[in-house]
Every structure is written in C-alpha cells, then in structure tokens.
TrEMBL record, chain A:
<dbReference type="Pfam" id="PF08281">
    <property type="entry name" value="Sigma70_r4_2"/>
</dbReference>
<protein>
    <submittedName>
        <fullName>RNA polymerase sigma factor</fullName>
    </submittedName>
</protein>
<keyword id="KW-0804">Transcription</keyword>
<dbReference type="InterPro" id="IPR007627">
    <property type="entry name" value="RNA_pol_sigma70_r2"/>
</dbReference>
<keyword id="KW-0731">Sigma factor</keyword>
<keyword id="KW-0805">Transcription regulation</keyword>
<comment type="similarity">
    <text>Belongs to the sigma-70 factor family. ECF subfamily.</text>
</comment>
<dbReference type="InterPro" id="IPR039425">
    <property type="entry name" value="RNA_pol_sigma-70-like"/>
</dbReference>
<dbReference type="InterPro" id="IPR013324">
    <property type="entry name" value="RNA_pol_sigma_r3/r4-like"/>
</dbReference>
Automatic annotation (TrEMBL), chain B:
<keyword id="KW-0812">Transmembrane</keyword>
<protein>
    <recommendedName>
        <fullName>Anti-sigma factor</fullName>
    </recommendedName>
</protein>
<keyword id="KW-0472">Membrane</keyword>
<feature type="transmembrane region" description="Helical">
    <location>
        <begin position="45"/>
        <end position="65"/>
    </location>
</feature>
<keyword id="KW-1133">Transmembrane helix</keyword>
Length: 189, 276
C-alpha cells in the first residue's frame, strides 16, 4: 500500500523508473503488463511466445524510458513498442506473405452475424487468420492505424494493406458465420 | 456499417481484456536488465582501456620522435660550413704563428733578468691559458698584443672543438691523420722556438745555467701537451687530473721553496745584523 501511495503520480514513477529504480520499474510493469500481454496475444497465437515478446518489449521500454517526452499517454507509448516488437517477432519467426492479387469481392452481409461473442471466441477467430491478414486486421480494426501507417510499418504498399484487410474481413465473416451456424444448429455444407 | 459495428465490439472486448503474466516474469525481466547493465559497464571499461592505450601510444610516439629530434640536433650537419671553418682556423693559426715570431723577436730587445723574474714569479694556469701566461711573462711591455693573442687563442680553441666534432662525425680517420700532422708541426715549432731561445741566451749571456734550459724545455713540453689536449678530440679525465695534480704539486713545491728561501733570508739578515 505504501508503494502505491508513494507512486501515485505516474510522472514521478516514470522518472524514477528512467533512473533505473527497480521498485518503480516493477510497479510500472505490474500496472501495464496484463494489458500489454493481451496486445501481444492479439498478434501471436502462443501465449508463452507472447509473454516473451512482452518482456522484450518492456526491456526496450525501460531502456528507452528517458526518451519519453510526456506528450502522449504512457500506455499508448508502451503499446506502440509492444506492437512493433510483436511484428518484428512474427517476421523473425517466419516469413509473412502478403498476397497482392486484387479481386473484386462482394460485400458480405453482416446483418445476421452475432456480435455477442466472448473474448476468447473472438481471439480464436483472429488466431485462425493467416499472419498477414491478422496483422493488418488487428492494426486497422483494433489499434486504429491508417493504411498508410500500416504500409510503412509492415513495409508494404497501401493497396496491399487494403487488400489484406478486405480478405481478412471476408475470412473472419466466413468464420463467424460458421460459428453462428454451429451455435444455431444449422450447418451449411 | 455492420462490419464497423462488429469490429467496434471486438475492439472494446479486446481492449478490456487483461492477461496476467506468469509469476517469474518480473524476475526474468529484472535479470535481463541487470545483465544489460553489467554489459554496459564492461563495455564502458573496455572503452576506457582502449582510450587509455591510444593515449599511451600517442605519448610514447611523441616522446620517441622528440628524442629523435634532439639526438639529431646534437649532431648538426655542418658539411658546407666545415671547409670555411677549416680555412678560418688555418688563417688564425697563421696569425698566431706570426705573432709568436713577433714575440720572439721582441724578446731580443728585453733583458734576461726581467725574463727570469717574470718566469719565476708569475703563477701558471692550465691548458691553453698556460701557454698564454708563459708568453705573458715575457711580453710584459706589449700588453695589447698579448690580449689579442689571448682572444685569438680562445677563438682557436672554440673552433678547434667545433672542427673536431664535425670532422669526427664526417671522417674520423682523416681527422686523426690531420691532428697527427698538426701535432708534429706544433712540436717541431716548439722545439725550434726553444732552440732559438737557448741560442739567444747564449748570445746575450755567456753563462747559461741548466735550470734555465730545464725551465725552457718544461715550458715547451707544456705547450705541446696543451696543444695536444686542445687538438685531440678525446680528452681523458685521468690525464686532466694528472695535469692538475702536477700543477698543484709544483705550486706547492714553489711555495715551500719560497717559504724556505724567505726564512733563510731572514735568518741570514738577522745573523748579519747581530754580527755587525
């Protein structure tokens, strides 16, 4: 309790952590680690690998903490580091392919889709997507990045990012439909 | 709009989610940070060591080059000027010889008594000054000539030393040969001088004591040794010490002799006065 009271002010806490105060660093870690692990888990299927990525991300956070300007939110700053770390992990582990075949997809109707899915179910659906689709979908739909930003982050063109998102949405719609049919007891073959 | 709604609901649910990391995750992270800090410290010390070694090498090289420069400056290249110096030295020697001839000729005009007195009473100095002082006794009337001679001899001495250094650095064999020739010339001159002086004494005074001849010979010998020491490049410390010792002994002898002489004179006068 004493520690929590002492580090009420986050700015003070960050400044102390930047000076390599272990207790301050631990407090920051304990505060932000669960959310950051969730972020990493959105990109990486295996939770253990996701945790490793999160730890390496926090290592970078504490090393570069002195560069934090207190201009935006601290959580947003850590989140960006985590996302970049996760992307670089996926790139290191296996080559991510981004297919550029532009096809005309018909907009699927989302009207009948049950949006009342549990978090674990949503995560399972996202995990079933390929790495390329998943990255673009999470970056665009969940993190709120623009296609231009995604393109620069992943080293692809904007059109590729758009195609990837379209395909990811299509695949996700298909999977959600499948799941709804299973839950309703009507399976289409 | 439907996909947007669906995506918004996904976003909300995923943002609210929190996955608790494993128990040892913080320890793992803190260990990694400690390792990094150690590495940083080590790398820092490595840089210090590298910087120190570079500085050390620079200092050593600078010292080495400075020494080289000073060693080079010890032996200046006087190749072009050496010939001029030699010519100057030769001219100076010629002048000296002329002066010595003048001195000898002037001796004819002076009385033998004066010479003897001056020879006995004036103290002697070592080296080249010894030669000058011996001549000084004889030439008490020509002070101006004597002063000029002293200056010239000093100049010759300096130039001889410079010449010896340069010649030694250029060709030691040649230098030795030259000094030998010069030495023989000097000794011949001195012998001739002594003989001429004895002849003059014989002409002027019919009775020449052996003491006078010995004095002249000793003087000539000293002149030769002095010249040798000046001309020769290598001056042995033992020889110099011996010279000084002999001079000291001599003066001591003279002092004792003088003391005895004065005492004897006093006693003699006292006895004579008593008898009277």
């Amino acid at each position: 309790m004493k520690i929590i009271q002492f580090y009420k002010n986050e700015t003070q806490l960050i400044k102390k952590a930047a000076k390599q105060h272990r207790d301050a660093q631990q407090h920051l870690f304990d505060t932000h680690a669960p959310k950051m692990l969730s972020v990493c888990r959105q990109y990486i299927r295996d939770v253990h690998f996701a945790e490793e990525v999160m730890l390496s991300g926090f290592l970078k956070v504490f090393i570069n903490l002195h560069t934090f300007k207190f201009e935006g939110s601290f959580e947003g700053w850590i989140r960006r580091i985590m996302i970049r770390e996760a992307i670089s992990f996926l790139r290191k582990e296996k080559k991510v392919f981004f297919t550029e075949d532009i096809q005309t997809y018909k907009e699927a109707s989302w009207d009948h889709i049950n949006t009342e899915l549990e978090v674990e179910q949503i995560q399972e659906l996202i995990d079933e997507l390929s790495d390329g689709y998943r990255m673009v979908f999470v970056l665009y739909a969940i993190e709120g990045y623009k296609h231009q930003e995604i393109a620069s982050m992943l080293g692809i063109t904007e059109s590729t990012s758009k195609t990837q998102l379209f395909k990811a949405r299509k695949a996700l719609q298909h999977k959600v439909n499948q799941q709804n049919n299973i839950s309703n007891g009507t399976i289409k073959i | 709009m439907a996909p947007l709604k669906f995506e918004d609901s996904i976003k909300e649910k995923l943002e609210q989610r929190a996955i608790k990391p494993s128990k040892g995750s913080w320890e793992k992270l803190s260990n990694q940070m400690d390792m990094l800090e150690r590495k940083k410290r080590n790398s820092g010390t490595h840089w210090y060591v590298i910087a120190a070694s570079i500085v050390g090498v620079l200092i050593l090289t600078s010292v080495f080059f400075n020494n080289k420069n000073t060693s080079d400056s010890k032996y200046p290249q006087l190749v072009d000027t050496s010939n001029k110096e030699l010519e100057k030295i030769k001219n100076e020697e010629l002048l000296e010889n002329k002066n010595s001839k003048k001195i000898v000729s002037s001796e004819k005009t002076e009385g033998l008594e004066n010479k003897k007195k001056k020879l006995y009473h004036q103290p002697e100095v070592s080296g080249v000054n010894h030669v000058v002082s011996s001549k000084k006794h004889i030439l008490f009337n020509k002070h101006t000539n004597h002063e000029l001679m002293v200056d010239k001899l000093a100049v010759i001495e300096k130039k001889n030393s410079v010449f010896a250094e340069v010649a030694d650095s250029l060709n030691p064999a040649q230098e030795n040969h030259e000094t030998r020739i010069k030495g023989t010339l000097i000794s011949d001159k001195n012998i001739a001088n002594v003989v001429s002086q004895i002849k003059e004494l014989q002409k002027n005074d019919s009775t020449i004591t052996t003491n006078e001849i010995d004095q002249l010979l000793l003087k000539a010998q000293r002149q030769i040794t002095a010249r040798h020491t000046v001309k020769s490049n290598t001056i042995s410390a033992s020889a110099l010490l011996l010279d000084v010792e002999t001079e000291l002994d001599e003066t001591f002898k003279n002092r004792v002799f003088e003391a005895l002489k004065s005492g004897f004179q006093k006693v003699k006068t006292a006895v004579a006065e008593r008898e009277n």
